[in-house]
Design brief:
alpha/beta, Rossmann fold, 5 strands, binds BIS(adenosine)-5'-tetraphosphate
Length: 194
């Protein structure tokens, strides 16, 4: 299974990917986690990315593509992956299409978690208080939501035009949302099998 999870920041992509990976038997590939690991390791790229992330902006497309290419080349991603946080703009969606065509691993499904902005601001505020992630402070979250609306929302249309997009309600109990995603994937594979 090669799956992209789309959704606004704080919509629960990472939360759901972590729950789905065992059921789907594929790794969770989160560009946000990879960037945070680079920041924590203090690499040159991590230092550059930190300021951009803390301000709620998107890190450069070149850095992201190189990082993703290296990750998908690893052994555990041969059987598929759950991609969380990528693509975040149309240039990344296009780059992903080319990369997957080159490695012969086309996407099976794209699921978007739909969550209203006011719910997202509340979730990130809770995480900000608990974990102190700089990009979760309420002003930065609003900036991230603006960038999402401008740059990432068109990515959903990109996949909808290709008949790949499933939209799932991302509000509710975690188990219920996981079940909704699984139902959407089941419906997708049933259609693909016809
Ligand atoms: P990400 O790590 O992708 O951060 P996110 O959008 O906040 O995470 P997600 O949607 O996965 O939410 P989560 O499950 O954690 O990106 C961080 C930054 O990295 C970006 O702003 C950007 O700077 C950079 N970046 C990453 N990818 C990039 C790319 N491709 N290009 C350029 N830059 C990139 O959930 C959020 C919170 O909600 C959690 O606290 C969770 O516990 C809670 N939650 C989840 N589901 C819930 C539910 N059903 N009910 C209640 N709470 C819930």
């Amino acid at each position: 299974m090669r799956l992209v999870l789309l959704g606004a920041p704080g919509s629960g992509k990472g939360t759901q990917a972590a729950r789905l990976k065992a059921a789907l038997g594929v790794p969770h590939v989160s560009t946000g986690d990879m960037l945070r690991a680079a920041v924590a390791a203090g690499t040159a790229m991590g230092l550059k990315a930190k300021a951009v992330m803390d301000a709620g902006q998107l890190v450069s497309d070149d850095i992201l593509l190189g990082m993703l290419e290296d990750r998908l080349a690893q052994e555990d991603a041969r059987a598929g992956f759950i991609l969380d946080g990528y693509p975040r703009n149309l240039a990344q969606a296009d780059a992903l299409d080319h990369l997957l065509a080159r490695i012969g691993q086309p996407l099976d499904a794209v699921v978007k978690l739909k969550v209203p902005s006011e719910v997202i601001v509340g979730r990130c505020e809770i995480r900000f208080k608990a974990e102190g992630r700089a990009d979760d402070n309420p002003d930065t979250v609003r900036k991230r939501l603006d960038i999402y609306a401008e740059q990432t929302a068109p990515v959903a249309d990109f996949y909808a035009r290709r008949g790949k997009l499933q939209v799932v309600d991302g509000v509710g109990e975690l188990d219920e949302i996981t079940a909704r995603v699984k139902r959407a994937l089941h419906a997708e594979s049933a259609t693909a099998g016809n």
